[in-house]
Hints:
This protein is α/β, with parallel strands linked by helices. Helices cover 44% and strands 15% of the residues. It is built from eleven helices and 14 strands. The strands form four sheets. It has a six-stranded parallel sheet with strand order 3-2-1-4-5-7. The protein has a three-stranded parallel sheet with strand order 6-8-12. β1, α1 (12-25) and β2 form a beta-alpha-beta unit. The longest helix has 22 residues, at 87-108. It is globular. The mean pLDDT is 97. Residues 79-80, 117-119, 142, 169-171, 182-184 line the site of 2-amino-3-ketobutyric acid.
Amino acid sequence: MKRILITGALGQIGTELTAYLRKQYGKDNVIASSRRKRGDESFFETGPFEILDVNDAQGIADICKKYKINQIIHLAAILSAKAEENPQQAYNINMNGTYNVLEVAREAGIAVFTPSSIAAFGAGTPADNTPQDTIQRPNTMYGVTKVAGELLCDYYYLKYGVDTRGVRFPGIISYETLPGGGTTDYAVHIFYEALKNKKYSCFIKAGTFMDMMYMPDALKAIHDLMEANPEKLKHRNAFNVTAMSFEPEMLAAEIRKHIPGFEMSYDVDPVRQSIADSWPNSLDDSCAREEWGWCPKYDLSSMTADMLQKLAEKLKIKQ
Length: 319
Ligand code: AKB
C-alpha cells in the first residue's frame, strides 16, 4: 500500500497533486505538508495535513514514522526568479531540504520523487531540442540547486539504493493555484488578465521560446514515473519532459482565437528575461517516452481552450 508524504503541498503543483493522488490511493494515504497553513481552508478538510519545514530533518523523520510513509514527493522549493532575490535562502531551502529528505529516505527505506527543471540547463547547453544528456552549467541559484539535486538523488540511488526518481519540468500552466516566483509564470498570469481585462503586460520579451506543460500532464508525469518499472529507468532522476514550446506572441495569438480583442504589451523584467534567455527553447524528451511511456495529452491549442474555460468558470466570468 502506498503511503505518500508531499512537501510543499500548498504550492502550484502540490495542491492539485494532493487531490489527484488522494483519488488514486485514498485520502488517508496521502499526507500534505507545508511550512505554514495558508490558502483555501477547504483544502485542510480533504485529508491529513502537517506543518513541516524541510529544513527540520527530525520533523520529516517524525512525520514519516507517524504515518508509515513509503514515498516522499518533495516539492518544497524556491523558484527561479524568487531565488535570485535571496540566493542564500534559496540555497538553504532547495539544497538542505533535499538533503534532509534524502537522509530520512535512506534511513527509513522510502522512495523519493524530486522535480528538477529546465533551469538545470544554462547558456552553454544546446538550446533547440536540448538532449537528455548534455552540458549543464546554469548561472542561477535555482539552476545550481536543481543540478546539484539531480546529482544528489543519483548518488543516493547508487550508493544507498534509495529509489529516487525525477523529471526536469518546464513551466507548468494551471488554474487552481498560482505559481510563485518563477520565470515561466507569465504563461499563467496572461490567462487571468485576458479573462478579466482583455489585455496583458508581459515581463518576458516576444520571441523568447520556453517549454511548457498543462497541469494534468504534469500530475500524470509524476504518477506514471513513480509507478514505472525500475528496471527500465536509465535516467531515473532527471528525465527531460515537455508538452509544448512557445513564445509569448504565439500564446497571445492562441488566446485571441477565444477572446478576439485581447491585447498584449511588454514591460520586460531584465532579471527574468536573462534567466529565460539562459534556458532551452525546446527539450528532447525521447528518453522519458522510451523508458516509462511519457506522452503528454495537451498541446498549445487544447491547453489554451481548456484553461480559458476552466478559469472562466472558477472566476465566474462569462465568455
Ligand atoms: C520557474 O520558472 O522557475 C519554474 C521552472 C521552469 O522550474 N516554473
